[in-house]
Amino acid sequence: MSTAAHSSMKLAGQESQLVSKKRPMVIAGPCSAESEQQMLQTALGLQKVKGVTVFRAGIWKPRTRPGSFQGVGTIGLEWMRTVKQETGLRTACEVANTSQVELALQHGVDILLIGAHTTVNPFLVQEIADALKGVQVPVLVKNPVNPDLQLWLGALERLHHSGITDLGAMHRGFSTLDSAPYRNHPKWEHALELRQLVPDLAMYCDASHIAGRRSLLRPVSQRALDLGYDGLMVESHHNPAAALSDAQQQIMPQELHMLLQALKPNKTSAEKVKQGAQLEKLRKEIELLDDELLALMSRRTKVTAELGNFGKPTAEQSALPDPVRWDLVLENLLHQANTAGIDQGFVKTIFQEVRSQYARTHLYNYGLSS
Ligand code: PEP
Ligand code: MN
C-alpha cells in the first residue's frame, strides 16, 4: 500500500460532534431496524448503558446475496425519530445513495455512516458528497472492504471537498482470505496509518463487524482503546437470537453495559499513541521482510538441491576444490557486509549455518553421510 503525503484536510477538531471528553464515545444499536417495538425496546435498554450516546440502526442493508433481509426502508426512519424523542439519544444510520441521504436528513438523523461496500465505489461516494453540499452533518466513513488506504482517504477527501468538516473514520476490518478468527481482519496498521495522515480525524472502531462473534468483542474493543481510538460502535439488540441480520455478533444492552465496564481506559498520551502507530508500522515491515527472507531461503534450498544432483564435481568441472571456493565466497560476503554496515560476525554465523545445512544435503547426495 502506498502512502500519500500528509493530508491538508481542515477538520472540526474540538468542535466535532464525533468526539467527547469522556472517551470512548459509544454508538450502539441493532444491525437492522426490524420493527418499532424492537427499535424502542433496544433503545430504552441502551439509554441506561453508561457511555452510549448514539443509537444506530441499519435502514437499508447491503446484503451479499439477494433474498436475505434487505432492511425495512423509510419506515425505519420514522421509528428512528421516535427513538430520538423517547430516549434523547442521538441517531445514526448508513446511507448509500442520494435519495437515502435526503431521506435520512429529512427524518432528522444526526450522524451519517458510509458503509464499507460504498467506500469502495468512488462514483457512489461522489454522489453522496454532492448531495451533502451545503449541509453540516457529521459523517463517519467506514474503511473499504479491501485493505486500500487510498480508497478510504479518497472517500474522506470527496466529502471534505463538499464542505463536510465533521468527519471521522470507522474501522470495521477488511475482507481477506486469512480473516480467521475475525469476521473481517483488523489490520490495525492501516487504520493507524490513516490517522497519521489525517491526525485530526475522529477514529472509531466498529468492533462488531471486525469480531463477527460475541467472544471477540471485548479484546477488539480493548485494543482500539489502547490505540487511542475516539469511539466504538457495537451492535446491540434486545433479543439477538431473533435478529434478522448479524445475529451471531449482537449483544443485549445489559451485556454491552458489562463489556464497557470491563474495558480499561487508555491513559496514554497522544504522543505515545503516535509512537505506537509508528511501532506497529515498523513491526509490520519486519514481518514482510521476514517473509521475503523465507522466500529467498526457499529459492536457495531449491537451487542447492539441483546442484547436489550433479554429485561431487570433478577437476574438469570445477577449477577450485569446494572448500577453497567456499572460503572465497565467504570472504566476499564479509566484505559486502562490512560495506553495508552489518556486523561481520553475525553474517559469518548465518552463512556458515546455511553452508553446513547445504553440506549435509550435499554429502548425503554423494552417499557419504552414513
Ligand atoms: C453495518 O454497520 O451494519 C454494516 C452493514 O456494516 P459494513 O458497512 O461495515 O459492512
Ligand atoms: Mn451488521
Which descriptors would you attach to this protein?
binds phosphoenolpyruvate, about 50% helix, TIM Barrel, Chorismate Mutase Domain, subunit A, about 375 residues, about 10% strand, binds manganese (II) ion, alpha/beta
For the record, the CATH architecture of the largest domain stands as Alpha-Beta Barrel
According to CATH, the homologous superfamily of the largest domain is: Aldolase class I
Oligomer: single chain
CATH class of the largest domain: Alpha Beta
Helical segment tally? 13
| Poorly predicted runs of 5 or more residues | none
Distance between the termini: 50 Å
Main sheet characteristics? 8 strands, parallel, barrel
Class computed from helices, strands and strand pairing: alpha/beta
Mean of residue pLDDT values: 91
